[in-house]
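A quick aside before the break. I want you to see a complete sequence-to-structure record at least once, exactly as it would be stored in a machine-readable document. Don't worry about memorizing anything.
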Amino acid sequence: MNQENRTCQNCKKDFIIELDDFEFYEKVKVPAPTFCPECRLQRRLSFRNERMLYHRECDLCGKKAITIYHPEGKNVVYCHSCWWSDKWNALSYGREYDFEKPFFEQYRKLSNTVPREGLINANSINCEYTHLAADNKDCYLLFESSNNERCNHCYWMQLSKDCLDCAFVNSSELCYETFVAWNCYKVFFSKECRDCTDSYFLQDCVGLTNCYGCVNLRSKSYCVFNKQYTKEEYSKILEEKKEQIKQGKAADLLKDFKDFALKQINKYAYIQKSVRSTGDRLLNTKNCIYCFDGYDAENCKYGYHVWRDAKEVMDGSTVGRGAELVYESINSGMKNYNVKFGIQDWNGNHDLTYSEACSGSSNLFGCISLHAKEYCILNKQYTKEEYEALVPKIIEQMDAVPYTDKKGRVYKYGEFFPAEISQFGYNETPAFDHFPMDKKQVQEQGFAWKEQEEKNVNIGGDIVGCGHKGKCQDHCTIGFKLIQAEKDFYEKMGLPVPALCPNCRHYYEARMPQ
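That is the input. The structure line, written in tokens, reads:
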């Protein structure tokens, strides 16, 4: 089959389905999508709340817990201990498949009744306020990260220690406000760096030590704005800059650096040690096409966060740690194999279709919150023979009786979940980061909107006021608590207390022109 031009049923723009796409679809036994790659990504991201946290009572034990689900939500939420306990059985929510009704309508009803885990936080120590995280220790407000120690207010961190306000940082230590870095130590206000030490305001640098305001340099020391200095000259300049940072003038220094960086040669993309790969911010990838923010991945396409031995992935958002043969899924990892249309499935799953929050399971279709189960449909147990006979009939029925959303978009077998059945408001999800829209635009496109709540915050002591004072649309907390680890970090590194709360800092950095 040759490539085909198609029109996205969502944005109405043309997109191309190439020969290798058709080969992958045949491999995983799905039809070609009717949404373009960008609309598919936006839809997937709208199903995950990464960083909006709430206090809510556990619907089983009644204790207050930290959760990503708003307390006024209509779903059922358990605390971590209850969700993983044997006090309940997810199969008890199972239901017969109704061939008269669309699949997604039935899934939506199941979704509102099966208990969800309030936070995803596996194998971690002293990490109460972390989400979509695993194998961390002594971390606070850390999201989408694993194998870190003492990392606070960070996003998508891997194998790092003692970092603050960083994102997409790997195998690094004592970094601050650094975006995309590998093997860095004491690097501040920088982006897209590798193997750098004791440096400030870097962009696309490798192997630098004791440098300030540099762009595109390799294996240099004692440079300021790409100009070579002696060690003594550099030390004098740096002390002046550090004093300005202490005085809260980092924003002025950042502006000076950006003005300088814009005059330099800027690469079309940050892709290193990669073969036949396109996209941006890639390291150690092979045959990764139109992929972003990934490393150690192979044979992936339309990927966002494909990493740590991800292989054979199409339309995957945060897929890694040995995951293989994954299609149209978000947050799928830890040795998953052959997962299609999955949400938050971890830990050794295989052969899952339209599943959510399942672990150690196989041969599931339309299931939620199952552990170590197999041959289930809508959380109802079947024999192997019954399951294998029923699934093809359901797929056929999904085409004959499709789900149509409020905007008239049609969902047959092969489409990810309709956005209107997401448990979250659009502005609670990373879709808001990457596809920002105002409330009117969000609702016009069929997504939900979460209104910001009034907050009564007493500023003083460890509670610091946010400069936005709740007047932005970025879930401003108005005030934010300084934990002791932050105080120690700022004092040790000679840094001032930030002027914005963690949420505002996150959105400000996410929307900065790169």
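Two observations worth writing down. The radius of gyration is 24 Å. Residues 384-400 form the longest helix (17 residues). We'll return to this after the break.
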